[in-house]
Write a structure and sequence with these properties.
By secondary structure, the chain is mainly alpha-helical. 62% of the residues lie in helices and 3% in strands. Helix 1 (27-44) crosses helix 4 and helix 3 packs antiparallel against helix 4. The protein is globular and about 60 Å long. It starts with 26 loop residues before the first helix and ends with a helix.
Length: 133
């Protein structure tokens, strides 16, 4: 919506009641959900489009490594460190929160690395196709 110049309305007093299916209350579901979200955020370039205040930023605003904004590697390492610490201190709820965030980042990284690799090899493949024609 932001990119299209549209506006939304946040109404904190609105209450929504939803019947949640039991399969959505499992840890496996939340791992998969975070992985899918990471994948789609990578495709949509969602994390690269906003600054810490939620303001749209221009393409190229963040420095990247292998197509991933560098701050995301730092965030992932913080969750990995948190996961290890909570595993050692036996805090299962916090450990699971870190685990789901790691699922998000791994999916994001794999998606972005694959698209970066595809873009980098595209000229080579195109040149091969032209030379074999």
């Amino acid at each position: 919506m932001w990119r299209a110049g549209k506006r939304g309305l946040y109404l904190p007093t609105a209450d929504v009641l939803v019947q949640i299916p039991p399969h959505r209350l499992t840890k496996a579901y939340h791992r998969r959900w975070q992985a899918r979200t990471g994948h789609y955020h990578a495709v949509m370039r969602f994390r690269d489009a906003l600054d810490a205040d939620g303001t749209l930023v221009p393409d190229g605003y963040y420095r990247t490594f292998l197509g991933v904004p560098r701050f995301m590697y730092r965030e992932c390492l913080q969750h990995l460190r948190g996961w290890i610490w909570t595993a050692l201190t036996r805090r299962a709820d916090e450990r699971f929160r870190h685990e789901t965030r790691i699922c998000y980042y791994v999916s994001f990284f794999i998606t972005r690395w694959a698209s970066t690799w595809a873009a980098a090899t595209r000229p080579v493949r195109k040149a091969r196709e032209l030379s074999s024609a």
